[in-house]
Design a protein that fits this description.
About 50% of the residues lie in helices and about 10% in strands. By secondary structure, the chain is α/β, with parallel strands linked by helices. Helix 6 runs antiparallel to helix 7 and helix 11 runs parallel beside helix 12.
Length: about 400
């Protein structure tokens, strides 16, 4: 069996690839933009245009000028009442059921990645430069990302160099370990478990992300899981820009049986967030989840608004928001990385929620995005049901990704 060659030429080649990584990502982003999200934006724009035209028509008919009346700074919040009993507590078999859903949700990604890896090692009895080149292609085309792919390749090279006689059949096991090691765990003061104690009450979470990624849906599912764990939860409808955003959150509030603090369409989002946190303190809420607008993520206006929301919440509760969760659509692949770049440059993102991993072969994005931005993935969405948002566990994820 041939001894491992240190592949000095690969180091130079990898350095060149890392340097060109950003341009590669930009090209992939342009090719992978979600048509569904774009269509949603066009529909929302049309709805708001119609509303504006209707307002103008009313003004013309009455002979008065259209006047924009700003929402009062802190008007009396409106709450959606809770009805019915709390959802039943989960059974001891919950972990097994979640793992089964995770395995099912990652089926397309597993089939794609596992098939490529099997083809890669077939007929090979040692790891050489050619195998590593093929492995690199497999990882990049599985949406792991250029930077993370090169990190994995470097780690594999180092282990092979140390062990000397590693063969291609052991490559898959090695990749599993390296992938798991690259993903971050949550820090203790920002616990991921729904029944974990919080250092501060209420524990305030601001949820951000562009429209169409499943942000409001994820908030509803988070509320449900917290409620199932026996926590007192309050939701804040601070996305006052998008048509029907408040109504959507109210529907999720009713399903999760938690209250929603809201104001009218076009109200000051910071005022809604302020009132929600204040209400959370008064009512003894343990968790406060704040929905935010998701349009125009490439413009400074939205980022400035998110900064303002953070500032006013801190006036009510020290350190609030205690978490900023960025929701990304896992099915968009490298486009999700571009969105993460924009948000992390402007907002102190502390954790990630990856949605829509079921039905997509782009689950590799979970690996790349956590490593590239050094932000832990906290929750993943693997289905459309209210309980299909799972706490992210890297070991369980890798097991599901590689099939056991």
């Amino acid at each position: 069996m041939a001894l491992f060659n240190p592949f000095k030429s690969r180091k130079k080649k990898n350095a060149e690839k890392a340097e060109a990584g950003s341009s590669v990502v930009d090209e992939v982003v342009q090719a992978s933009a979600s048509p569904v999200a774009e269509a949603s934006e066009r529909v929302l724009d049309a709805v708001q245009d119609v509303a504006q035209e209707a307002a103008s028509a009313v003004s013309a008919a009455t002979g008065s000028a259209a006047i924009e009346v700003p929402a009062p700074e802190h008007p009396t919040p409106t709450a959606v009442p809770v009805t019915g009993d709390a959802p039943p507590v989960g059974t001891p078999e919950e972990t097994t059921k979640e793992q089964e859903r995770l395995v099912e949700g990652l089926e397309k990604t597993r089939t794609s990645l596992f098939g490529k890896l099997n083809k890669l090692v077939r007929g090979k009895d040692t790891i050489d430069d050619e195998v590593l080149d093929e492995l690199e292609e497999v990882l990049v085309t599985s949406d792991v990302g250029v930077k993370t792919t090169l990190d994995i390749i470097d780690r594999v090279q180092a282990r092979v160099a140390a062990d000397k006689y590693v063969n291609a059949r052991e490559l898959q096991s090695m990749i599993r370990k390296e992938i798991s090691a690259l993903m971050l765990d949550s820090v203790p003061d920002r616990p991921v478990a729904f029944d974990a104690p919080f250092p501060t009450k209420p524990h305030v979470v601001m949820v951000v992300g562009v429209n169409g990624v499943g942000k409001t849906t994820s908030i509803g599912k988070l509320a449900y899981r917290y409620k199932m764990a026996g926590r007192k939860v309050l939701l804040g409808a601070a996305d006052t820009f998008r048509a029907a955003a408040t109504e959507q959150l109210e529907i999720w509030g009713e399903r999760a049986q938690v209250e929603v603090i809201k104001q009218g369409h076009g109200a000051d989002p910071a005022a809604v967030a302020f009132d929600t946190v204040a209400a959370g303190k008064t009512r003894g809420s343990e968790v406060v989840l704040i929905d935010t607008a998701g349009r125009l993520h490439t413009k400074a206006g939205l980022m400035d608004e998110l900064t303002k929301i953070k500032r006013v919440m801190d006036k009510q509760v020290d350190g609030a928001p205690h978490e900023v969760l960025l929701v990304l659509d896992g099915s968009t692949g490298q486009n999700a990385i571009r969105q993460a770049e924009v948000f992390t440059q402007s907002v102190d993102v502390t954790g990630l929620i990856l949605t829509k991993l079921d039905g997509s072969a782009k689950g590799g994005i979970v690996i790349g995005i956590s490593n590239e931005f050094q932000i832990p993935v906290k929750y993943i969405g693997v289905g459309e049901q209210i309980d299909d948002l799972q706490v992210f566990d890297r070991e369980r994820f890798v097991d599901a990704l590689f099939g056991g």
